[in-house]
Amino acid sequence: IFCDICIKEILKGNRPSTHFIRDEWLKIMTNFEKEMGKGFSQRQLKNRWDDLKKEWKAWKKLKGEDTGLGWNPIKRTVDASDEWWESRLQVVPEAKKFRTSGIDLEFEGKLDQMFMGIVVTGDKAWAPSSGTLP
Q1: Tens of pLDDT along 83-124?
Q2: Strand locations in 7-76, DSSP E?
């Protein structure tokens, strides 16, 4: 429900930059209270937003641009060899929890709507010492 409410505000153009401002948080708080029947503070909802953003970022960094990976529908996560997991977790240690339970594809889509384009994952990073552009 939280994601749906945030996405509605984003689609209305109520996220002027990378985050909501005070007025938008008030709208989210009001709508969330209507849906849940319980009020939450701006700080509580902002903490949830930040936690979801960290989780989404780790998930995207974990998957990277690797191709040929399988999908385990039971675990809802990447189906890959132990070697692949060990290698990826060296790069993205915060994604360890996704080895046993990932993010549902529908939920990932919602997180994409919330954070795509406003969060730097580093997968497109380039520096002159990197050689050719990605």
Answers
A1: 999 998 998 899 999 999 988 889 999 999 999 977 554 444
A2: 70-72
Domain span including residue 73: 2-119
Contact 49, 6 (CB under 8 A): yes
The total of structural domains in the chain comes to 1
pLDDT tens by residue, 41-83: 999 999 999 999 999 999 988 887 777 788 888 888 888 889 9
Answer whether residue 69 is part of any domain. yes
131 belongs to a structural domain:
no
Answer for the pair 89, 81: CB distance below 8 angstroms, yes or no.
Answer: no
Measured from the Cβ of residue 3, the count of other Cβ atoms closer than 10 Å reads: 16
Of 99, 43, 64, the residue nearest 28 (C-alpha): 43
**Structure pTM?**
0.78
